């Protein structure tokens, strides 16, 4: 519960912080506070009495703070691999326009991946906008992943560091793919849900796909959604760590699955990235796959059934699990609960 309370006071701290946060961001972030509280609370409360995961705090190498993660470990059944056998690691990052949330935002994903693949699954939370700009969130995610790829963590959690995968939704896809670039050849596969891969232009300038709503009731919030990288955009215009669309295939995981809704301002940039990566990896044993979901909005796998198609959402989650299982099996891990 303390994690939820700390997360939910972020807008108040940002409004009255001593940090030089521009007023144009402060008031918009504060206006978003009810939605922020609702998202955090809805994601946290289902797990409040759960023993499905444990919480850990990873020391940061960027600023002397601790990074909160939650870790799911598989429950073994009679047909499972031996408990002594090292397990795959899956590392997942929540979305939210690079704004700080709670690790439980990806608890559902982490629990499902752990249950269905047998991987030790980590969900990380990070610092972010508008209180802190780039590269605060990237540094936190990088540090957390680096810890779980260390010999210390491998021994503590009985990990097979030859069998590592990542995932993320929206900004989380950017963060997970970016972190994987520091561990070329180690992170074997990635799944990107509605990934933010090109931050060289602000949200309001991104091309609108067919079927996109003609009016956007939360358009006034777009500047705060852009506050993590927007003020620094000219300085980092050619930075592949921030703009994944610029990263060569050789720096990214060997296998990548893109889950892409078609009614999303990110459709254009994701499609361009997929097309380029497929061209770069043509004739190799690498997998670059994309699944497009007609009529679905940004973040659809996590949206309520009244706004998204539950059948398509389930299809997206199942494709993720199947993709990760294939990767794990290539690494010598076959899971039966």
TrEMBL record:
Which InterPro entries does this chain map to?
AB_hydrolase_3 (IPR013094), AB_hydrolase_fold (IPR029058), GDXG_lipolytic_enzyme (IPR050300)
A Pfam cross-reference name:
Abhydrolase_3
Ranges of residues in domain Alpha/beta hydrolase fold-3: 92-300
What keywords appear on the UniProt entry?
A: Hydrolase
List the Gene Ontology MF annotations in alphabetical order.
hydrolase activity
PANTHER family from the xrefs?
A: AB HYDROLASE SUPERFAMILY PROTEIN C4A8.06C, ALPHA_BETA HYDROLASE FOLD-3 DOMAIN-CONTAINING PROTEIN-RELATED
Q: Per its record, how is this protein called by name?
A: Alpha/beta hydrolase fold-3 domain-containing protein
Native source organism of the sequence: Orbilia javanica
Lineage of the species this protein comes from: Eukaryota, Fungi, Dikarya, Ascomycota, Pezizomycotina
């Amino acid at each position: 519960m303390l994690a939820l309370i700390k997360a939910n006071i972020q807008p108040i701290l940002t409004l009255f912080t001593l940090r030089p946060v521009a007023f144009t961001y402060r008031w918009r972030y504060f206006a978003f506070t009810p939605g922020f509280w609702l998202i955090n609370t809805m994601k946290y409360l289902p797990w409040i009495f759960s023993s499905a995961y444990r919480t850990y705090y990873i020391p940061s190498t960027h600023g002397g703070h601790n990074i909160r993660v939650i870790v799911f470990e598989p429950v073994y059944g009679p047909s499972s691999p031996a408990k002594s056998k090292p397990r795959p690691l899956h590392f997942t990052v929540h979305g939210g326009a690079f704004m700080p949330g709670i690790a439980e935002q990806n608890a559902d994903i982490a629990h499902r991946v752990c249950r269905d693949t047998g991987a030790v699954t980590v969900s990380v939370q990070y610092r972010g906008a508008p209180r802190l700009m780039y590269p605060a969130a990237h540094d936190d995610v990088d540090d957390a992943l680096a810890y779980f790829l260390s010999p210390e963590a491998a021994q503590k959690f009985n990990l097979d560091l030859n069998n590592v995968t990542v995932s993320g939704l929206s900004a989380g896809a950017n963060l997970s793919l970016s972190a994987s670039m520091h561990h070329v050849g180690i992170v074997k596969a990635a799944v990107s849900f509605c990934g933010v891969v090109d931050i060289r232009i602000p949200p309001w300038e991104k091309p609108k796909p067919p079927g996109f709503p003609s009016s956007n009731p939360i358009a006034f919030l777009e500047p705060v959604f852009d506050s993590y990288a927007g003020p620094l955009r000219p300085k980092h215009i050619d930075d592949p760590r921030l703009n994944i669309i610029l990263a060569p295939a050789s720096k990214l995981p060997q296998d990548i699955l893109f889950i892409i809704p078609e009614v999303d301002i990110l459709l254009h940039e994701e499609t361009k990235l997929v097309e380029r990566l497929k061209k770069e990896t043509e004739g190799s044993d690498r997998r670059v796959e994309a699944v497009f979901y007609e009529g679905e909005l940004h973040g659809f796998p996590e949206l309520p059934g009244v706004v998204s198609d539950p059948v398509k959402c389930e299809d997206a989650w199942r494709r993720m699990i199947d993709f990760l299982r294939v990767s794990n099996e290539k690494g010598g891990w076959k899971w039966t609960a």
